[in-house]
Amino acid sequence: MPLYGKAIRSLSQTLKTDQAFTMETLAAILIMQRAEALFDPGHRPLIHSKGIASLLARVGPPKAGDKFHASVFAETYSVMIPYWMMTGWDNLIEKPPWRDAVVSGLTEYTGVPELKPYFYTAFDKNNRLCEKVPVLMQGIMVLFQDPEHEKFSAISPFVQQMTEEFRTAETSVREAVYAIFDEAMKLGAIIEEDKSTPLTRTSYNFSSTHLAQSLVSYLSFHIYILRLRYQWNVSFQLPDAPDLYKIFQDACIRIWKFVPFMQKAWLFLLRHLQSSLAISFEAANEDEKDYILSIFENLDRHGKKESRTREELRSQLEQQSLLLQMEWR
Question: Which InterPro entries does this one have (predicted)?
């Protein structure tokens, strides 16, 4: 990106003037963030988030019916979710009138207006989960830090409370995202085709790349929480753990069916699959793992400054799987 440094300097100069607090400046920062995610992934992933949070409060609410405002705030929402969960940021975007603008922007982005009520439901449920994730992670840490944690039983009040927290969080998000998916299939916006890959016998085709990208975001969020819920339940030998792993495997297969469409689209879409493909690695057999590794190799060639070897990629993905498979007691 030969002009990236120049663009950063230009943006920095703008931020020092009274012209800084505009929707155009917010849009420019979002473009910078997207460029870094595409060409320098994993490096300072939240570097722009604090600035976006501050600027967002100064920009003010969106103009009603303004499609530019709606699209910028929808993009801001997707970018700021990790920052929100990690810092407990007081998220303006979930409040009216930002909420209406974000959902309108998301719906306009996908090109399927009939999905708008489903996006409203998913938006609200995802927001509740964003608030809940720090609570869940804190619960896991409390368990690890207690010197008596190995003696905790499934019927202890703390474990029962956390089990219910995980159940509520995971099922709520699953219901919301699968409702969007099922309705999109009924509308013909998603078509399952007899197009096989080393991962699946069929693949999904979408009415737009934007719909595919939106669904991947929701499904990736769900598969992460689902895997955490499964690990909690298996750690305490809860009877529904095997059923949860089957749901996890099915969720992985659903993600894998996105791959051909993403591969023929553009690099950023394929990169959008990275986190969920990494989590799904443990559910793959050896041939499937080889194919997933080839996807990561391709992404490395077109993004990272220094490509990892196949052995390094495999080691990193396997280490991540092992971390998720740790017993939590």
Answer: Osmoadaptation_assoc
Q: Let me know whether 299 and 185 are in one domain.
A: yes
Q: Domain check: are 73 and 208 in the same one? A: no
Long-range contact set of residues 125-131: C-beta below 8 Å, sequence gap at least 24: 125/172, 125/173, 125/175, 125/176, 126/81, 126/173, 126/176, 126/218, 126/221, 127/91, 127/94, 128/169, 128/172, 129/169, 129/172, 129/173, 129/221, 129/225, 130/81, 130/84, 130/85, 130/91
Domain end (from 65, 91, 110):
110
Residues 174 and 86 in one domain: no
- Residue among 288, 310, 290 nearest 300 (CA): 310
Please, which residues have CB within 8 angstroms of residue 275's CB and are 6 or more apart in sequence?
A: 220, 224
Q: Are residues 147 and 238 in the same domain?
A: yes
> Which tens digits make up the pLDDT trace of 23-52?
888 888 888 777 766 666 555 556 678 778
Sequence letter at residue 106:
L
Please state, for a pLDDT cut of 70, what percent of the chain lies above it: 84
Cβ contacts of 195 within 8 Å, gap of 6 or more: 202, 203, 205, 260
